[in-house]
């Protein structure tokens, strides 16, 4: 049925060893029982209010991200390779960020075109020379991985600013443990529940020097933001305040929260708002979301912002092709994880090649996210392709192109029963004094048959992700 | 705790308490409206509904907007009206919205409970409410309120969040103790004897007890037939009644003392003075001086306390003025 790599079955249709326990369970469990569990999950997600807000619809519209009961399972050995690759990649990306805001060795050595970095809209000149605590820029990183038809994993993109979805990873696990405890008893599945503790630990480690028992807060744009559930969830799980810009003020380069007992100093802010909105006195003057003066306090070393402003230059899609080069340059190692071949349309020869093959390729905006602003050639109409061609020609620097990968599929419960659907995987990597990689991550699934778009804003769903311990 | 969090939590429980008391008010008015006409002192069908609106201070506004007062319209206004910010549906929506903004400060079970209430009332239509019967939605609201109170007591840590939820609940409930009493008490001065003058009066004061689920408490305490004097005593001055003004004010005083660590703050002083006044008042004096002026005076002192609570905890300090209690 499905072409390409099936996570559960091999080419001969046999169940892969790491799916054997799940397969047994499927055969032992009556369909009606599975249907009942699926309904229970839906009711429960609604009740708990695990929703995301949808932009462009009636204000306050909240939607559930569909949850799929069939887990995505990774065998232990495969995960060990991925984990090593993720550590390596995030370490190199952090070194890259420190370098481009510091000595710029990699640019002087001409391994990356200087203008690609320095003229990038995500490059913040205000960050040049700023001493970042512990040298960590991206404290929380999400690296999107896909498995292609050849069975190999590829990094699809790096997320170094405010990667979201970790709350769904944790809630999905909670839901599965409740619905199918028998499946957890049949095999050793690596726990993900330690994530909030590990996050709090690296945030506290990032406090300015000389602070004992730092106060940590999560900064959110507010309840209207699509990821508000996650912001509140993380603050609650860590036991710290969830603040909005209006709750903070800066005096003498120190940041305070307005509390019922008067002002209280804040030392570390896990901010879930974009650079542009952080501080109206430095960035966008029209922003109501941020805190006037907070960037000055950051530069003065009185408060830590996580992730660091300016980290976006490291996850830019036009910088992505150079990550393997970074790994070789900073770590003197060969990259463990593969990049997808990428054409950078600012290069004339790449542009020419891409324009000739638009119906075969995926073209992405350099700063696009959430599945917006992209062309999936094989799925597009001729008119869509021609429209996109004009957009590319008008501003080639804004685009990259990649071959269309046939993402692997995973059995997924749909109306007609269990059927293969395309998936990807976003593992989360926490960088502090040590690097923590959560075993698993968020598996997103394209629920429409044949669709390759897994983004929640485009109707994708999620699955629990299991890393087997042996 | 953040000022914004304190304010949101305070309003979560004010709105839930308001929804419950609105349900009790509807229950009271329905009981009075059931009074056989021959006992009614020449009043129109709408009389209990007019008095219910008047007790909330919204009678004038209601007639200005809708022209006439008739039972169906007032019921809808109290239960589901989107235009009435204090309709039960709007209260549950507001409680859920405030809780959603602060879901990090409360337990997941508390939010789930509020969310479930909201999801259910959101789907209610007036036709559905009519066909199920008004008393079924009244009972449902009371049980949703009890559920939220129970989940809060049973799951939330005894910290500031709990204290602000208590403040909101008891400020709101104090207010309603007075207003619900006003629905029957505004009918005229209570007779010097303290007794009901006729069957209509007897019936109304009994209805008040029933709407408060306080009939059994009343019987145990007074061991006499229902009299306006004793019902007023139970609603205002007795701390055995969990919904009496005295119980609410005692609780407010205790919570505020615990929150501020003593008597030195204005909020504690105001709550303490109100509580003491109620503790040492005599019911016969209140009746002799007139119940209505007493209720009005108490309402305005309560409003003053509410404003003081707001000023003490919920107003953000300006960057330039707040004195620093910061460490490090």
TrEMBL record, chain A:
Superkingdom field? Bacteria
Q: What is this protein called?
A: Circularly permuted type 2 ATP-grasp protein
Listed PANTHER family: BLR5612 PROTEIN (PTHR34595), SLL1039 PROTEIN (PTHR34595:SF7)
- Annotated Pfam families: CP_ATPgrasp_2 (PF14403)
Where does the Circularly permuted ATP-grasp type domain start and stop, copy by copy? 71-446
InterPro entries, alphabetized: ATP-dep_Glu-Cys_Ligase-2 (IPR051680), CP_ATPgrasp_2 (IPR025841), UCP005522 (IPR016450)
TrEMBL record, chain B:
Q: What is this protein called?
A: Alpha-E domain-containing protein
- Name the species this protein comes from: Luteimonas viscosa
Q: Which InterPro entries match?
A: ATP-dep_Glu-Cys_Ligase-2, DUF403
Q: Which domain of life is it from?
A: Bacteria
Q: What positions belong to coiled-coil segments?
A: none
**Domain (DUF403) ranges:** 1-314
């Amino acid at each position: 049925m499905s072409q390409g790599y099936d996570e559960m079955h091999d080419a001969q249709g046999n169940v892969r060893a790491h799916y054997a326990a799940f397969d047994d369970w499927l055969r032992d469990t009556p369909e009606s029982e599975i249907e009942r569990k699926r309904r229970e999950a839906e009711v429960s997600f609604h009740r708990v209010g695990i929703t995301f807000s949808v932009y462009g619809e009636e204000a306050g519209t909240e939607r559930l991200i569909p949850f799929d009961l069939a887990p995505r399972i990774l065998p232990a050995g495969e995960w060990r390779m991925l984990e090593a690759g993720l550590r390596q990649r995030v370490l190199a990306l952090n070194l890259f960020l420190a370098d481009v805001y510091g000595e710029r060795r990699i640019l002087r050595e001409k391994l990356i075109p200087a203008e690609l970095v320095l003229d990038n809209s995500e490059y913040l000149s205000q960050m040049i020379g700023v001493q970042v605590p512990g040298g960590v820029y991206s404290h929380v990183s999400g690296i999107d991985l896909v498995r292609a038809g050849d069975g190999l994993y590829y990094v699809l993109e790096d997320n170094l600013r405010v990667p979201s979805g970790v709350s769904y990873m944790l809630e999905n696990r909670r839901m599965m443990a409740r619905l199918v405890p028998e499946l957890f008893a049949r095999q050793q599945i690596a726990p993900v529940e330690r994530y909030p503790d590990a996050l709090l630990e690296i945030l506290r480690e990032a406090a300015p020097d000389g602070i004992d028992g730092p106060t940590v807060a999560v900064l959110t744009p507010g309840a209207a933001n699509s990821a508000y559930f996650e912001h509140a969830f993380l603050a609650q799980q860590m036991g710290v305040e969830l603040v909005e810009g209006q709750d903070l003020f800066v005096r003498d380069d120190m940041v305070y929260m307005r509390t019922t007992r008067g002002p209280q100093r804040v030392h570390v802010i896990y901010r879930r708002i974009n650079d542009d909105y952080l501080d109206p006195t430095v960035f966008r003057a029209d922003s109501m979301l941020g805190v006037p003066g907070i960037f000055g306090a950051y530069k003065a070393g009185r408060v830590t912002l996580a992730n660091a402003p300016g980290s976006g230059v490291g996850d830019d899609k036009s910088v992505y092709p150079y990550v393997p080069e970074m790994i070789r340059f900073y770590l003197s190692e060969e990259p463990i994880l593969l990049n997808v071949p990428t054409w950078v349309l600012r290069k004339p020869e790449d542009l020419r090649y891409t324009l000739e093959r638009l119906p075969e390729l995926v073209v992405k905006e350099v700063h696009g996210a959430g599945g917006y602003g992209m062309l999936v050639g094989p799925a597009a109409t001729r008119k869509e392709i021609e429209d996109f061609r004009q957009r590319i020609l008008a501003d080639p620097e804004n685009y990259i192109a990649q071959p269309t990968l046939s993402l692997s599929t995973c059995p997924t419960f749909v109306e007609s029963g269990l059927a293969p659907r395309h998936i990807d995987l976003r593992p989360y990597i926490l960088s502090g004094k040590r690097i923590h990689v959560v075993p698993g991550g968020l598996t997103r699934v394209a629920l429409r048959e044949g669709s390759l778009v897994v983004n929640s804003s485009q109707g994708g769903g999620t699955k629990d992700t299991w890393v087997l311990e042996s | 705790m953040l000022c914004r969090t304190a304010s949101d939590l305070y309003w979560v429980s004010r709105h839930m308490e308001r929804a419950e008391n609105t349900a009790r008010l509807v229950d009271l008015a329905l009981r009075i409206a059931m009074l056989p006409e021959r006992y009614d002192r020449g009043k129109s069908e709408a009389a209990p509904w007019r008095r219910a609106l008047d007790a909330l201070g919204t009678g004038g506004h209601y007639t200005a907007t809708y022209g006439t007062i008739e039972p169906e319209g007032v019921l809808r206004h109290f239960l589901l009206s989107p235009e009435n910010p204090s309709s039960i549906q709007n209260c549950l929506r507001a409680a859920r919205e405030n809780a959603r903004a602060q879901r990090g400060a409360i337990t997941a079970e508390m939010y789930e409970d509020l969310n479930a209430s909201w999801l259910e009332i959101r789907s209610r239509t007036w036709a559905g409410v009519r066909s199920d019967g008004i008393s079924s939605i009244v009972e449902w609201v009371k049980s949703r309120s009890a559920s939220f109170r129970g989940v809060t007591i049973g799951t939330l840590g005894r910290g500031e969040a709990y204290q602000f939820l208590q403040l909101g609940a008891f400020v709101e409930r104090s207010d309603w103790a007075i207003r619900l009493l006003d629905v029957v008490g505004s009918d005229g001065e209570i007779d010097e004897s303290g007794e009901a003058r006729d069957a209509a009066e007897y019936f109304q004061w009994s209805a008040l007890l029933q709407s408060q689920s306080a009939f059994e408490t009343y019987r145990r305490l007074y061991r006499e037939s229902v009299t306006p004097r004793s019902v007023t005593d139970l609603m205002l001055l007795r701390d055995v009644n969990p919904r009496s003004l005295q119980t609410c004010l005692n609780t407010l005083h205790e919570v505020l003392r615990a929150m501020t660590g003593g008597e030195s703050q204005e909020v504690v002083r105001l709550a303490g003075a109100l509580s003491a006044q109620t503790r040492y008042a005599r019911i016969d004096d209140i009746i002799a001086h007139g119940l209505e002026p007493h209720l009005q005076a108490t309402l305005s002192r309560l409003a003053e306390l509410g404003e003081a609570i707001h000023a003490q905890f919920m107003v953000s300090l300006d960057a330039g003025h707040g004195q620093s209690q910061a460490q490090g």
